[in-house]
Write the structure tokens for this entry.
Amino acid sequence: MAKERKIKCDCGEFLAEKATIFDHFEIEALVCPKCGFVTLTKEQAQNYAKLKQLHQMMDAERKIIKIGNSMGITLPDALQQFGAKIGKKVKTEALGPKSFKVELVS
Ligand SMILES: [Zn+2]
């Protein structure tokens, strides 16, 4: 996928591909190990734009609803473009007493 291509930073060091926190998101980016300069390749920028879209879609207050004898929350239909669909398995995990995450199982 991503071609190995060395890009030189203004400080003289070569940028390295690395998972980094960029604008609250953890993404793959090109980071200068010397001065900390961060930039994105076209592909990384597209991934970032998609992630930002997901963020806008998912960050909301939702209400717990009753489904049979269980409780449930609804997810936006547009989440399908990120791999969510009816019948899809998800993994839930407690992060704290009032916080948990939902991960799509691939
Ligand atoms: Zn640099």
